[in-house]
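SAMPLE LOG
Freezer: B-3
Tube label: C17
Construct: single chain, 399 aa
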Amino acid sequence: MEFFPYRSLDKTNSNIEVHKEELELKYLKRKTLFVNIILLGLVAPIMLTLFYSDIGTYTMIVYGLFFIALFGVNFAFYAYEDYFNSLKLAMYITTLSIYMIAVTLIVEIQSPSVFTFLFLAYAVVSVYQDKKAALINNISLFFLGIIIVWRYPNIFRSESTNIQVIYIYIFLAVFVALLSISSFILINRKNFLYNKLAQIKEAEIRMLGLIQDLKVTYLPQSLNANDYYQQVKSFSNELTKKIDIENIFLERLQIIQKLGKTPEHEILKLYPDYDADDIDELKQLKLDLHSKIHYLLFKSSQAINAGSDEKISSDNMFKTLNNLTDSRYTKIITFAVFYTLLKVDKQFLKALDDDMIQYLFKNSEFLYTINPDILNIYQGNSEVFDKIVQDAFNKKVKL
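STRUCTURE (predicted):
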């Protein structure tokens, strides 16, 4: 018997990494927009600073064109189909561009006050909370600061001695070190959060898959996909009729029903308006035992009866069965309760016999959700847990 065709046991880490990339992409898109909004808000103050510094019209035009090119690059990468890598590349280009703008402003104006442009650039780049961007950020701030102080000492020195410049070097080193420590702490916390959220999502998918496996194995009923497609067809007919348009969903629904029964190359011949990418998208809507749409439907059906104060959290499901902070006594009691529930008839799962429970504990995802020491205790003392079950059913037994 094969469990979890939707999730291979030897690819657990890769699945979690995929979820982490999805989270990073989601928030990187927001950060990209936020950084560009900040830069757009800084355009006017920078241009006014250049104007009142008598820099010259030509230089102002160059800065304006540079900002337009930077926004154009960000927009192009943001709109590109390969979102993750394109946004990463846009982030690095923006980071370097921000420091280029800051350094050129310092060189053009040559005033101690404009040295703050470097720190402003650091603050803007820190929004990304990326390790590589943070490394570029810290190195750029430190070395560019040293180069500017060394190359243009008159900006900061009001007397003939170099003591003020030395103080600036010391301040810059300490300040960048503190900023580096704080930024990497925040980045590690972000990565920890993403990792936990990815683990929660993967645990939820595995739990849904396990429930479906158990339902199919022990309930004498199969997934009625035809009835589902018929209801979708009826709904689409009513919807298109009401808004007075042609039923554009009917052909797609026919393709979905053919998937898995008819070879893809034949489907492409029958429907020449569709290509392989369209077929891949329609596969996501096919109702199978371990399809995403089936998991979504099942989760939605369970959430319908949940009250407003109730919360469905897959992170808490089975968590105490393998929680490192729990004592062995707590784990044994929790496992005993869980073992008893497996022997009780439930709405979605009939009671399991001893042989099937033994099999599930060795060959299914239960092996990864239950503490190994507790499983070993159960394997060597299964009769004790059976007596606990009998006591739970109000049957007197001799110990």
